[in-house]
Amino acid sequence: MKVLVWAEHEQGALKDATLSAVTAAAGLGAVDVLVAGDSAGSVGAQAAQIAGVEKVLVAGDAAYAHGLPENVAPLVVALMAGYDAFVAPATTTGKNIAPRVAALLDVAQISEILSVEGPKTFTRPIYAGNAIATVESSDAKLVITVRGTAFAKAAREGGSAAVETVAGTGEAGLSSFVGAEIAQSERPELTSAKVIVSGGRALKDSETFAATILPLADKLKAAVGASRAAVDAGYVSNDHQVGQTGKIVAPEVYIAVGISGAIQHLAGMKDSKTIIAINKDEDAPIFQIADIGLVADLYSAVPDLVARV
Ligand SMILES: Cc1cc2nc3c(=O)[nH]c(=O)nc-3n(C[C@H](O)[C@H](O)[C@H](O)COP(=O)(O)OP(=O)(O)OC[C@H]3O[C@@H](n4cnc5c(N)ncnc54)[C@H](O)[C@@H]3O)c2cc1C
């Protein structure tokens, strides 16, 4: 089977999500990587280093600069004549592109796979991760998104793939990029951080959230996450949200502060290696999945922790 992997990149750097997608794709067959963008050449060179990649296709065109699915999907569909499967990371961009590719190919997308069980058989989460379905495709071509936390990252170095330039399909004329407001942060990115400190509704407001959560995150060099309740109440921006409708994370350590542990939150963090929960309610559901639980008032426990770390 020949597999084409969508390379996720930002500001000239290949993102880790691509590496997990390559590992998943390698379970299906020979892996080529597609790098599309206006400065795709340098990213193409990085992709060629990934262990296990056979060929890198570079489509350098301003039409792909912002990953607009209306422009990217026709490119992928044109290339799919030579491939059996298209694999994209289940990131915002990947989840934007893959459904359009599937629709244009007239096949069913297989979303957020957790494992490859056979050439056309996969597992994937359903009911917010409370059940795992095994699905088998009967389509001639596969369109798959990959949950990054479920697959090891392919090595960034060690490969020596051939790099080939491919002609772009240009502007589809269906959409245009207006602008992006990207939060700048010195902190590690939520989805690739080793340690995450997350705050919930109990943090009261944005000032209290910042004054309580950030000192602990600073000490631990951690990314900052939040429950949807904290995001909806405006304590932090929505790019911090962890959960079913937020980001899926699996850090070494996840510290949940004043978070009850609703299933929609657990769906985004329950695969974390060590879960530490601080909550004043000993019956809070978060304690059912926590490896270490502290029944305490966060306003004394967190400063205490900061002082001791
Ligand atoms: C379709 C859908 C999608 C959703 N997606 C998401 C999602 O992606 N992510 C997400 O997080 N939620 C999501 N939710 C919302 C989810 O159901 C919960 O409402 C939300 O996670 C609750 O957030 P919380 O734990 O911060 O708040 P609460 O449930 O109100 O919990 C606050 C906790 O803080 C504790 N507490 C209060 N004061 C203190 C104190 N002083 N010290 C210590 N502990 C204290 C309380 O005991 C309580 O357990 C979704 C819901 C729906 C319906």
Topology:
Elements: E1 2-6, E2 9-10, E3 13-14, H1 16-26, E4 30-37, H2 40-49, E5 53-60, H3 69-79, E6 85-89, H4 92-105, E7 109-113, E8 115-118, E9 121-126, E10 131-136, E11 142-146, E12 162-165, E13 195-199, H5 206-220, E14 223-226, H6 228-232, E15 253-257, H7 263-269, E16 274-279, H8 286-289, E17 292-295, H9 298-308
Parallel strand pairs: 1-4, 1-6, 4-5, 5-12, 6-11, 7-11, 13-14, 13-15, 15-16, 16-17
Antiparallel strand pairs: 2-3, 8-9, 9-10
Helix pairs in contact: 3-4, 5-9
Bound molecules: flavin-adenine dinucleotide (FAD).
Flavin-adenine dinucleotide is lined by residues 200-202, 227-230, 241-246, 258-260, 262, 264-265, 268, 278-281, 284, 297-299.
The general outline is elongated
| Structural class by helix and strand composition | alpha/beta
- What is the CATH class designation of the largest domain? Alpha Beta
Identify the CATH homologous superfamily of the largest domain.
HUPs
Q: What is the count of β-strands? A: 17
- Spell the H/E element sequence: EEEHEHEHEHEEEEEEEHEHEHEHEH
Strand portion, in percent? 25-35%
| Percent helix | 25-40%
Tell me the domain tally.
2
Topology-level CATH name of the largest domain: Rossmann fold
